[in-house]
Design brief:
Elements lengths: L13 H18 L1 E5 H20 L2 H7 L7 H14 L8 E8 L6 E7 L1
Antiparallel strand pairs: 1-3, 2-3
Helix pairs in contact: 1-4
Length: 117
Amino acid sequence: MRHRNKVKKLGLRKDHRTALLRNLTTSLILHDKIRTTEARAKVVSARFGRLMNIVQKKEAREAIRMTPKYLSNTDASRKLLEVLKPKYADRQSGFTRITRIGLRDGDKATLVQIELI
C-alpha cells in the first residue's frame, strides 16, 4: 500500500523531475548553496536529508553504490563522503537552511536560497 507516500510533482514528468532533483542536489553539495523556487527547495531539502541519513548509516562502499540514485556527479559523491559525512556526524537532521530572498520578476514565484548549515 502507498498510504501517505505523497510525491511533489512540481509540474513535471517523472523523468524530468528526477533529473532536475538529481542536478539540484548535486549543485547543493558542490556549491554549498543554490537559488531556486520555494517548492523545489523544500523537495531538495528533504531529499538531501534522506541522502545524508543513508550515508551516515551505511558503510562507505554501500553508500558509494547508493549515491548515483541521488547525485549526477562523482565529485559530489566524493565530497559527500569525505567532507560532509564527518561534518554532520553528530547531527540527525536539519542539514539545510532555506531563506527567502524575494520574488522572480517574470512570474512572481518566491525565490529562496537553500544552503548547507
